[in-house]
Amino acid sequence: MTLSSDHLPSSACQPDRAILRQRLTAAGLRATTQRILILESLMVLPGHPTAEQVHRQVVLAEPTVSLGTVYKTLDSFVAAGLSKRVASAEGPCRRYDSDCNAHHHLYCIDTKEIIDYSNPELDALIRDFFATHGLGNFQPHSFSLHVAGSRIS
């Protein structure tokens, strides 16, 4: 079992921009300055930032980048597989995850924190359940649980 808190700073250092250019190019996107800054911000901000949080980070380096550009770029990252959109109980607020590895999310309704959760045993249970019970005429390819609750002190 692995838990990773939304409020802890990223363990990764500042990403190398040459590597970010390669990731964008490999995903079929042009490596523009704006895209590099947005991807870098998504990776260095703790947890699962909103587009607004990414925008606040990006404009520190490039004040002309609009919030609309950040939204469109983050959506293009999701479409290209560079990030994932994360459900939250905050209504229409979209949050993003730069970790595209298979994992689940625990949502604390008190702190609004999203905690990454990985557990191979849980994944095996879910795969076995759907292999046995199925979903009618639907074949799942991937899954991610979103569990809402409260931290226990």
Number of domains: 1
CATH architecture classification name: Orthogonal Bundle
CATH homologous superfamily title: Winged helix-like DNA-binding domain superfamily/Winged helix DNA-binding domain
Return the CATH topology: Arc Repressor Mutant, subunit A
Write up what this structure looks like.
This protein has 153 residues and is α+β, with helices and mostly antiparallel strands. The protein has one domain: Winged helix-like DNA-binding domain superfamily/Winged helix DNA-binding domain (Arc Repressor Mutant, subunit A, Orthogonal Bundle), CATH 1.10.10. It has five helices and six strands; from the N terminus they run E-H-H-H-H-E-E-E-E-H-E. It has helices spanning 17-26, 33-44, 51-61, 67-80, 120-133; strands at residues 2-4, 84-86, 95-97, 104-108, 114-118, 146-149. Strands 1-5-4-6 form a four-stranded mixed sheet. Strands 2-3 form a two-stranded antiparallel sheet. The longest helix is centred in the middle third of the chain and has 14 residues, at 67-80. It starts with a strand and ends with a strand. This is Transcriptional repressor. Belongs to the Fur family. Keywords: DNA-binding, Repressor, Transcription, Transcription regulation, Zinc. InterPro entries: FUR, Fur_C, WH-like_DNA-bd_sf, WH_DNA-bd_sf.
